[in-house]
Amino acid sequence: xxxxxxxxxxxxxxxxxxxxxxxxxxxxxxxxxxxxxxxxxxxxxxxxxxxxxxxxxxxxxxxxxxxxxxxxxxxxxxxxxxxxxxxxxxxxxxxxxxxxxxxxxxxxxxxxxxxxxxxxxxxxxxxxxxxxxxxxxxxxxxxxxxxxxxxxxxxxxxxxxxxxxxxxxxxxxxxxxxxxxxxxxxxxxxxxxxxxxxxxxxxxxxxxxxxxxxxxxxxxxxxxxxxxxxxxxxxxxxxxxxxxxxxxxxxxxxxxxxxxxxxxxxxxxxxxxxxxxxxxxxxxx
Length: 285
Ligand SMILES: [Fe+2]
Hints:
6-stranded mixed beta sheet; 7 helices; Purple Acid Phosphatase, chain A, domain 2
């Protein structure tokens, strides 16, 4: 039999718990950025690209809940990593309509401050307007890749950096994106990790994706209850291998829908590329 006093204490304790969880997920975790360092081993990576670093920012969703000052702080964190290239994997604002375009130019201005020795590359997400967003980023020196690729040279060696249009909002065309590439390593930017279903049939080596936000809310012992993916929580966040292709799904730094994050901290990722064969030899020593 629970006494009246115990009942009141239980209700009070539960109230404190709800208040703490609400405050944490609304105000603390959405600004608590984690830096993840990931090594990617790539077959036949040209010698001059050994140790190349790529910083990834994703799903910024600049809006009233993801203020410009926070975006600026994240850009500074990326610059402090001194990456060789920076990649942006879509969803720069929350609302892509013209009415909400007041957020697009400020976020583009902040991203213009990104410093990378060999370029900043971007793809669009399902919250982006193709013309307005690609225009705003391109005008600020960011190379937007929509079903196209570039060859990134270091002296006479090169790798391919490619990017596809968004799987949901755009017209993703993998064949067109990879047309004209050869057997050199291919690094592909996508917004939606569901695209791996098609990408795994190609010879792409490494994919960087966003879109999921890691669920934004992930429950202990259960995982994220809601993921906007036909594969459920399978590609919610982290590193995956599908055939010869590695894919990393970044949790992004912004929020959409409810302005909360819980057990799905915002993320900036720094990748270091290594030649797979060298890594295997070193591993055997
Ligand atoms: Fe997003």
